[in-house]
Specification:
The complex is a heterodimer of chains A (about 325) and B (about 525). Chain A is mostly helical and about 325 residues long. Chain A contains 13 helices and no strands. Chain A has 2 domains: about 90 residues, no CATH class; about 230 residues, MetI-like fold, CATH 1.10.3720.10. Helix content of chain A is about 80%, strand content about 0%. In chain A, α6 crosses α8, α8 packs across α10 and α11 packs antiparallel against α12. The longest helix of chain A has about 40 residues. With about 525 residues, chain B is an alpha+beta fold. In chain B, the strands form 6 sheets. Chain B has a 5-stranded mixed beta sheet with strand order 15-14-16-13-17, sandwiched between helices. A 4-stranded mixed beta sheet of chain B has the order 1-10-9-8, covered by helices on one side. In chain B, β4 and β5 form a beta hairpin. In chain B, α8 packs antiparallel against α10 and α15 packs antiparallel against α16. The longest helix of chain B is centred in the N-terminal third of the chain and has 25 residues. The two termini of chain B are about 20 Å apart. Classes of the chains: A mainly alpha (about 325), B alpha+beta (about 525). The interface between A and B is large, with 57 and 58 residues. Chain A: Its main location: membrane. Chain A: Belongs to the binding-protein-dependent transport system permease family. Chain A: This is ABC transporter permease. Chain A: Keywords: Cell membrane, Membrane, Transmembrane, Transmembrane helix, Transport.
């Protein structure tokens, strides 16, 4: 029952936060220099003042900012995210088309990063001063420090050009489309490079985190007790240490979700992954306000949802937090 | 590993090339071509949208009254013949009788009339059809376009890139044509029909079996993949994942594609677009309101160095407002050959005296972000170059295109790098930069230089309606000499657009509109290996 109340409270907070996000996004985007009508009029190569005025009226840009904001909030409340100036389509449709690809990329990278990162961390924690441990440390620092688009370009040149074994752009073979299981394999092949690029950044963080926590946990009294009882080392690690060690990882997963999403946008551009990344890019360049605001809003929804879910998972795996909530 | 592979590919390529003449007859139809494009189309209706992204598919989907060859000659397309009245006040088109839209409806004069009026009312290029008064349709296959004044640019405006013929039975529904859902599911009468569009990912064009030209198109399918990263595009082309990369402008990218053994790289097919890269002056701001200062800057900048060194010889120089590929271009203009002494003399004459630090004046230079080789690098080069004559330049970066456009369109700049297209006829793409009437605050690519010369206005007005080609050419020649002498703009180069094609392809689009014309003649002389 407590958990239900807790979640309800979180949802109320989330709603308030989303409202703030909407207002803040609106203000930030409208404060940026440049004007969508100018971009559209520019393409006309000398539009008249009448045409410019008509465009402004058509998109409601002739009202004051406050009026525009209120209209926008009212529309969003009724599920209307507006009409894209650039793509000439309702924004919601555009986003729903692109969202699955971004989620797919983000989640596959996240899972890869957590699993591989944790494994590397655990392995290197067992001999903190060993060669393997140092190797993992150096690699993780490099992975973390390198800008994600640079890593992407490097992988693109490596596996696309020098050693061309993987597809470098798109989500599936569109010239010779596959069906059934072959399609799944095809998509997985296309997923490797973008997912690896994004995962590399996060593997670094999870392996560092796992290493530090594992070293910490392994020096705890209950581990010494377990070892003293003669329990095999593998059981000690998996059964006794891992669960406790994972709690900080879960927290970080939740906190990292925003970064993951931002990284996905960059990776999508490098590998032409048909998610929201390109949409954001195009709408920024065209000052396509409705599209941009909706993309940011949906990203915020996902990040907030991720945080709430993390919070719940956190409570489920660590009974002490549940007790503390009482 | 790599060298072995390329040797093998090269050997196979050579063998195929040797056998090609025999194969070309065997394999003249069928097959798929994959085009890579960084440009995401808004929609597919070129009647209400300008630009490369829409024109590329629109010219495949929609047929138009005329098409053009490599030498600027109009050729029959939907119109099998046409004539212009003696007084130049009407143009009559005689349509082919066997053209049908992709839904089976015949293409008639009503569709052509509807399309012309729709384009006149909605197309971004307002000057293109401004002279059209009304369109008469005496019978289903005759169209008479009545003009308010002679309009020699009209024939060029009937090109596929500018005048797609829309089906009246679909679009004449009273809805706003710019947001009509049919723009995303277009029905045209062109060689290919759109069969699939995955937003932001790819679109597929399939052969239209009932296309009115017998034996065309030769290909079965064109897939246009939307690739956002130019590096991924180049790698994909080298691998053969993509058969055509259009509009490559980066000089390093061009050089890399030229080295790829499987590709042919050409700069043909951009004559009508006429993309010019230039330095524009705000002629209303001191000290740039003095023509001598602008001329001095032109003399102090070294066009040869820019074209040969900064652009690695990939770009051609341009010296005037009409792109060198146009028959109307005048070569005999002041070229502002590099001359520091002359520049200093002009600046002295203009009264710009050097201060204690040798600085005569300080000014800003802007550039369009995102095209470094054509824009930022030249701006930076000019900064160091103009220092030699005592002009201190501050390079002002803009975070993105709208930020730059805001500054320039509101005349809030001293000098800016810019890229502007000719679009075939001066009336469509050149006049806008120089007409006094087109000084319009808030609109980019209008006369943002605020250049005003009554003689130029008069010449452009006359040339726009002059129907005798020689006289028209003479008027534009005088216009070009005056503008270059007045120097509201220092012309630098043609944007070095190139297209890369897979070696096995034949029937390449090298006409003046290049890839923005129907690809109905394109075929695989040597099919690619799967």
């Amino acid at each position: 029952m407590n958990l239900v109340f807790h979640i309800m409270g979180k949802l109320v907070n989330a709603a308030a936060l989303l409202l703030a996000v909407l207002v803040l996004n609106f203000c930030l985007i409208h404060l940026a220099p440049g004007d969508p009508v100018q971009v559209i009029a520019g393409e006309m190569g000398g539009a008249s003042a009448d045409v410019v005025a008509a465009l402004r009226a058509k998109y409601g840009l002739d009202h004051t900012l406050t009026e525009q904001l209120l209209t926008y909030l009212k529309n969003v409340a009724s599920g209307d995210f507006g009409y894209s100036y650039y793509f000439n389509q309702p924004v919601l449709g555009l986003i729903l088309q692109r969202l699955p690809a971004t989620l797919y990329l983000a989640f596959s990278s996240l899972i890869a990063a957590v699993v591989v990162g944790t494994m590397l961390g655990v392995v290197s924690a067992r001999r903190p001063n060993g060669l393997l441990s140092h190797g993992v440390t150096v690699l993780s620092l490099a992975g973390y420090a390198a800008p994600v688009f640079w890593t992407g370009l490097l992988l693109l040149l490596l596996f696309g050009s020098a050693w061309p074994i993987l597809p470098v752009s798109g989500m599936a073979n569109v010239v010779d489309p596959k069906t059934g299981f072959a399609y799944v394999l095809d998509v997985l092949k296309h997923l490797v490079l973008p997912s690896l690029t994004l995962a590399l950044v996060f593997i670094a963080q999870y392996s560092r985190l796992a290493r530090v926590n594992m070293i910490d946990v392994l020096s705890a009294d209950y581990i010494r007790t377990a070892r003293a009882k003669g329990i095999p080392e593998s059981v000690v690690i998996v059964k006794h240490a891992l669960r406790n060690m994972l709690i900080p990882t879960v927290t970080v997963v939740g906190l990292q979700f925003g970064n993951l999403f931002a990284g996905a946008v960059l990776v999508e551009t490098v590998f032409s992954w048909p998610g929201m990344g390109r949409l954001v890019f195009d709408s920024i360049l065209r000052r396509d306000y409705p599209t941009l605001m909706a993309v940011l809003f949906f990203s915020a929804v996902i990040v907030i949802a991720a945080n709430i879910i993390t919070d719940i998972v956190y409570r489920l795996i660590d009974p002490r937090i549940r007790a503390g909530a009482r | 590993m790599l060298s072995k592979r390329s040797f093998f590919l090269g050997a196979v390529g050579a063998l195929i090339a040797l056998g090609a003449p025999g194969l070309s007859r065997a394999q003249s139809t069928g097959g798929t071509v994959v085009i890579g494009s960084t440009q995401v189309p808004r929609h597919f209706n070129g009647a209400v949208q300008s630009g490369i992204a829409t024109a590329l598919p629109s010219t495949q989907i929609f047929a138009s009254p005329l098409r053009y060859d490599e030498n600027w000659n109009p050729k029959p397309y939907l119109a099998e013949s046409w004539e212009t009245a003696k007084d130049g006040l009407s143009v009559t088109l005689h349509l082919v009788k066997n053209a049908v839209f992709h839904d089976g409806q015949p293409v008639t004069s009503a569709d052509v009339a509807f399309s012309i009026l729709t384009i006149k009312a909605n197309h971004p290029f307002q000057t293109m059809l401004a002279a059209v008064d009304k369109v008469e349709t005496p019978d289903p296959y005759t169209v008479v376009i009545k003009l308010s004044h002679p309009h020699p640019a009209l024939l060029l405006a009937m090109s596929p890139a500018l005048m797609p013929i829309l089906p009246k039975h679909i679009y004449d529904d009273g809805k706003d044509i710019k947001s009509n859902p049919a723009n995303l599911k277009p029905i045209g009468s062109g060689p290919f029909k759109l069969t699939e569009y995955k937003q932001g990912e790819y679109y597929t064009l399939e052969k239209f079996d009932k296309f009115f030209i017998k034996g065309r198109p030769k290909l079965d399918k064109i897939v246009v993949r939307l690739i956002s990263d130019p590096n991924a595009m180049i790698v994909s082309a080298e691998r053969g994942d993509i058969n055509i990369v259009p509009f490559v402008a980066g000089v390093r990218d061009i050089a890399r594609l030229q080295k790829a053994p499987n590709l042919t790289v050409t700069d043909k097919g951009f004559a009508a677009i006429g993309p010019l890269n230039w330095l524009a002056f705000n002629t209303k701001k001191k000290p740039l309101d003095d023509a001598r200062v602008r001329q001095a800057i032109a003399y102090a900048a070294n066009r040869d160095f820019i074209v040969k060194k900064l652009m690695g010889g990939q770009a051609t120089a341009s010296t005037g407002p009409i792109a060198p590929g146009s028959p109307l271009a005048e070569k005999n203009v002041e070229t502002y050959k590099y001359d520091v002494a002359k520049a200093n003399k002009l600046l002295d004459e203009a009264g710009l005296k050097p201060d204690g630090d040798g600085v005569r004046a300080t000014m800003t230079i802007d550039y369009i972000p995102g095209a470094d080789e054509q824009q930022r690098n030249i701006a930076e080069y000019l900064r160091s170059q103009l220092k030699k004559v005592g002009l201190k330049l501050e390079v002002r970066a803009a975070s993105d295109f709208p930020t730059w456009a805001q500054r320039v369109s509101n005349h809030d700049f001293d000098m800016t790098m810019d890229t502007v297209f000719n679009w075939g006829d001066p009336v469509i793409g050149v006049d806008r930069t120089y007409l006094t009437s087109n000084i319009r605050k808030g609109i980019i690519w209008s006369n943002t230089q605020q250049y005003s010369n009554p003689k130029v206005d008069e010449l452009l007005a006359k040339a726009a309606t002059e129907t005798v080609p020689e006289k028209r050419k003479a008027l534009y020649s005088e216009f070009q000499k005056i503008v270059v002498a007045d120097a509201p703009i220092y012309y630098i180069n043609q944007t070095p657009y190139h297209n890369a094609f897979s070696k096995g392809l034949a029937g390449l689009p090298t006409s003046i509109w290049g890839i923005m014309s129907p690809l109905d003649e394109l075929y695989w002389a040597t099919p690619p290996k799967q």
